[in-house]
């Protein structure tokens, strides 16, 4: 485990859900107004309640055949272990810097 992963793990263990949500910037406003977050959530059946209260349980994100060129909003899913992006017109991907648990990344154009 890297130093960053250990730090994040310690932070998560010692924090309440509300504190974690605050650090990740999770809010109903983000869920309702951020188009990138909406696209990720809609394509993965993530409800507003899940996004706000069970975000730490989301470990897999998939996007298939949506033809997005810019993948954003991944920074709100810090516990991702798997990310699968299929048949997108990707030119930019942003937000992986907070995905310290990511093990598998599939990108198929």
Protein described:
The strands form 2 sheets. Strands 1-3-5 form a 3-stranded parallel sheet, with no helix packed on it. A two-stranded parallel sheet has the order 2-4. It has helices spanning 3-13, 17-24, 28-33, 35-43, 48-53, and strands spanning 60-64, 70-71, 82-86, 92-93, 104-108. The chain is built from 5 helices and 5 strands; from the N terminus they run αααααβββββ. The longest helix is centred in the first third of the chain and has 11 residues, at 3-13. It is globular. With 109 residues, it is of the alpha/beta class.
Produce the secondary structure layout.
Elements: H1 3-13, H2 17-24, H3 28-33, H4 35-43, H5 48-53, E1 60-64, E2 70-71, E3 82-86, E4 92-93, E5 104-108
Parallel strand pairs: 1-3, 2-4, 3-5
């Amino acid at each position: 485990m890297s130093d960053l992963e250990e730090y994040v793990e310690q932070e998560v263990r010692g924090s309440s859900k509300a504190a974690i949500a605050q650090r990740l910037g999770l809010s109903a406003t983000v869920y309702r107004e951020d188009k990138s977050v909406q696209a990720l959530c809609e394509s993965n059946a993530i409800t507003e309640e899940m996004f706000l209260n069970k975000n730490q349980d989301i470990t897999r994100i998939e996007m298939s055949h949506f033809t997005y060129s810019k993948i954003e909003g991944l920074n709100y899913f810090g516990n991702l272990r798997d990310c699968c992006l299929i048949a997108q017109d990707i030119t930019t991907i942003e937000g992986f810097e907070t995905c310290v648990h990511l093990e598998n990344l599939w990108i198929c154009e």
